[in-house]
Amino acid sequence: MTTTVTTPGGTAGPRAARPAPSAPALLRARRWLGRNALRIYGAVAFAYLFTPIAYITVFSFNDGGRSNLVWRGFTLKNWANPCGAPEVCSAVGNSLKIGITATLIATVLGTMVAFALGRHRFRGRTATNLVLFLPMATPEVVLAASLLTLFLQLAPIGIQLGVTTIVIAHVMFCLSFVVVTVKARIAGLDPRLEQAAADLYATEWQAFRRITLPLVAPGIAGGALLAFSLSFDDFIITNFVSGNVNTFPKFVYVSAQRGIPAQAYVIGAFMFFLALTIVLVADIVRRRRAPK
Amino acid sequence: MAIASVAHTGPAAPPPVPPGRRRSLTPYLLLLPGIAWLTIFFVVPIVTLFGTSLQVPAEGGETGVFVQAFRFANYVDAVTEYWAQFSRSFVYAGIATVLALAIGYPLAYMIAFKAGKLRNLLLVLVVAPFFASFILRTIAWRQILADEGFVVSSLKWLHVIPQTATVTASAVAVVAGITYNFLPFMTLPLYASLERIDPRLLEAGSDLYGNGFTVFRKVTFPLSLPGVVAGTLLTFIPAAGDYVNAALLGRQPGTAMIGNVVESRFFRIVDYPTAASLSFVLMAAILVLVFLYIRKAGTEELV
Q1: What digits encode the pLDDT tens for the residues A41-77?
Q2: Cβ of residue A99 closer than 8 Å to a chain B Cβ
Q3: CA-to-CA distance for B292 and B295, rounded, in angstroms?
Q4: pTM beyond 0.80
């Protein structure tokens, strides 16, 4: 990280300073620092951002037993057996199930809304935008509390807190993010491509399916990825509407009182590196496909 | 980058360019399911929250049973009782927002202007911490900042902090946790607005004999103001409502924020009306603050 960021400046630095060989080394060092201060700062800032990730990764290899608070030696057994601690894997399973369901619903509904906003004229645009914007501008605890009051009032007609209410809540707060992501992609499309399709006698539906949808697909995929990571990682809203269903963040939060098993760190580190790989590979693929 | 686009969230996005399509039912059919979902599970719950906030305990005196009333005094009671937690939430969130701006601005600036080919990669790395569980990261900080841990003992050894200082279960730990957790929300919008600045404007600034600092003060910073506004809001709003950092890093009544009170009123004490009035006041207070702030900052881009 540090080396890659500072290299360009580092190689250019001495060459630029060469015409004045009499300049004292101290002055040159100061100039180099001045030119690279921001890059050095960036390296420090990224080190800060990744400090807890490093901690999680290191302690996922700790032979720390049930509480995993002090370093007791390196072991691979947590990674070999991530389900070794009770409840970890059932909580992760619930989180995956909820995340996938909520992502599917939010992505379909959000994409439809994004197309309405990006491709159509209609009355009520301001109100639509407001309803989309407000959930993103409301603190999670307020969303959580208000949903809980709704579900409590619906309890007499048989609505019980559980997987369904969690999915409902997750779709609600993921939707706006999907809309924003997909809408940005639609806004960036060249309208002439669709006109060209129409000129070539494509019906509206054909033009949509063959031209528009494939072009918007990366935006939809991005929105889905965002929705899944929001859903999988959500704690506050889930905690309010989950009843006695356990999810991964809830499991970690509750076990924080008595010590978190190393297996939870394994899941955390694994999710991190998996998501990072997906994003980086997608970026490389996108660049390969970019027009030469 | 998907998340980066959230940065320019303005719902007041430029009106679309409909490719010569007549008015039809299509947009309404496309909107219906999504907007219905948001209406039923966002708008209606705000109404039930307001309803619950006015309820009174049922006559029988059984815990957790309330009947609908219009007792607006619930609000007075709740706010007077939890005034300390309210002000603490706003103070902690305010300090964390300023810190995140101080840390995030140079970082966003570096990515926008100095990163060259690494720009996209660095942008991914800014959001990457989100991929590791929020709760786990907060707990990692708790261990890293523990009094008996490496960081605090080194600082004591270097006499940066007094020997008697404690960070475990302190306000400092809570604010540090909030700052860390919401830093990407600050950095992304800052980056988005810095990246959009036309480099020719900066060249013009230096052509007119502005030195580096003057160009920054007179050109770069004013042009990045929409990002500053968006970033501070995206940090402040979730920070004011957060209770995870206070619960995991504060761990004492002296650092409890309003979210902690709402949570415990709902689940430990089963006092729905008080919890609902507190949530409603929090939402209203934040909306008012956001409105005032946007008017003062003079940007139309967010509303």
Answers
A1: 999 999 999 999 999 999 999 987 677 778 888 988 8
A2: no
A3: 5
A4: yes
